[in-house]
Specification:
heterodimer; A: 111 residues; mainly beta; six-stranded mixed beta sheet; three-stranded antiparallel beta sheet; B: 119 residues
Chain lengths: 111, 119
């Protein structure tokens, strides 16, 4: 079970866009379309924002979008709002261990 | 509404065991799997394992094999996670989460249970 690599931090001004990367290997991110993204505010449980690379659960604003290229998945938050300031984690199915790996987490700051 | 409600905080000594419960409501319990995820203070998320509420099949993270057991009680729509031989680095918030079928994504989360391991 290995952690997927995310940048520690990202930031943007209100209204701007920010993109967070999630890098794995061909055994996880690159090999399966089971990449999810979670938002976590301090002291709260994570909230699902994207699943299966680019699907949005009902109730998640379309400002949040996901994509994947090779072994790297990305989450883009467009039209940043103050409430988007949070920690974001990616996750991916890892077929070699039949397990789930999480990313190292990215703290998004709205300037 | 659909929710998962977990048991309260625990303080345990090294070497002891802890059992955390996760009661589901608002949906058909046996139609979804439950995963357990933990988060050490100031750290990231760690997947611990999964259990099918339909048939009790389990899949545990390799690093926890032999120390963790996940079970369900369908009569009360409750999932349980027991962790044995506790160490200080097991100190964490433990979450249960409902899995969207065959997607390895968790759409409903419990509120979390703080487990502190300290002598």
């Amino acid at each position: 079970q290995s952690a997927l690599t995310q940048p520690p931090s990202a930031s943007g001004s209100p209204g701007q866009s920010v993109t967070i990367s999630c890098t794995g290997t061909s055994s996880d991110v690159g090999g399966y379309n089971y990449v999810s993204w979670y938002q976590q505010h301090p002291g709260k449980a994570p909230k699902l924002m994207i699943y299966e690379v680019s699907k949005r659960p009902s109730g998640v604003p379309d400002r949040f979008s996901g994509s994947k290229s090779g072994n790297t998945a990305s989450l883009t938050v467009s039209g940043l709002q103050a409430e988007d300031e949070a920690d974001y984690y990616c996750s991916s199915y890892a077929g070699s261990n039949n397990s789930l790996d999480f990313g190292t987490g990215t703290k998004v700051t709205v300037l | 509404q659909v929710q998962l409600v977990q048991s309260g905080a625990e303080v345990k000594k090294p070497g002891a065991s802890v059992k955390v419960s996760c009661k589901a409501s608002g949906y058909t319990f046996t139609s979804y799997g439950i995963s357990w995820v933990r988060q050490a203070p100031g750290q990231g998320l760690e997947w611990m394992g999964w259990i099918s509420a339909y048939n009790g099949n389990t899949n545990y993270a390799q690093k926890l094999q032999g120390r963790v057991t996940m079970t369900t009680d369908t009569s009360t729509s409750t999932a349980y996670m027991e962790l044995r031989s506790l160490r200080s680095d097991d100190t964490a918030v433990y979450y249960c989460a409902r899995e969207i079928a065959e997607s390895d994504a968790f759409d409903i989360w419990g509120q979390g249970t703080m487990v502190t391991v300290s002598s």
